[in-house]
Amino acid sequence: MRNLILVAFVEAVADGLVFPRSDWPLHITLLRFDVEPSDGVDVAARLSELVTAPAMGALGAELTVGPDAGFGHQGSIPVSLVEHHPLLQGLHEELFEAMESVGGRAATPRYVMENYRPHISHHDGKRPKPGDAVVLDQIALVDMAPEGNHTIRRILKVWRPPAEPN
Q1: Are 50 and 35 within 8 A, CB to CB?
Q2: For residues 45 and 49, what is the distance between their CA atoms, to the nearest angstrom?
Q3: Using alpha carbons only, how large is the chain's radius of gyration in Å?
Q4: Global pTM value
């Protein structure tokens, strides 16, 4: 089983970045899922192909950070909600369809599609403030256990806006 996640980083990241599972850059989770490896098919590569068009279409969307909330058991995980934006919701739904088409299963099926609640988890004193603007400029596919190592994460692919010509 492969554990993958699609996110929109709100902190700058590098392609191929490997980081400890306890030290995520700030991000908006778009969709976390599991997928069985397929004989002769690189599932992550196939998913990247399917995700490119919706990811590129969503880049540049301006989002607004909403109020703080608590997720998880008894609200113990502090997060900043992200205000509803039709482009972000549409991106989530297109990513969900792409994930299903490669045989994936959402890790938190109760919080997908119409129940999707975009948020940014607070980490190590880093957090956005209500009213902050966030631009979708880095959408990434992340391996949650590269080579079976659950202590690290690896960015497999980052979609960014095309570079401005000089």
Answers
A1: no
A2: 6
A3: 15
A4: 0.94
Return d(Cα 39, Cα 63) in angstroms, integer: 39
Residue 38 has pLDDT above 80, yes or no: no
| Type of residue numbered 64 | T
Residues 109-123 have a mean pLDDT of 95
Distance CA 141, CA 104 (A): 14
How is 128-142 classified by DSSP, letter by letter?
--TT-EEE---EEEE
**pLDDT attached to residue 36:** 86
Q: Which two tokens stand for residue 49?
A: 């192909």
Q: In which region does residue 75 sit, left (phi positive, over 0), alpha (psi from -120 to 50) or beta (all else)?
A: left
Quote the mean pLDDT of the chain.
93
The 3-state DSSP class for residue 155 equals: strand
117-153 per-position pLDDT tens digit = 999 999 888 999 999 999 999 999 999 999 999 999 9
Distance between CA atoms of residues 128 and 121, nearest Å: 9
Could you tell me which residues are beta bridge partners of residue 32? 5
- What is the rounded distance in angstroms from the CA atom of residue 39 to the CA atom of residue 48? 17
Contacts of 59 (CB under 8 A, 6+ apart): 136, 137, 139, 159, 160, 161
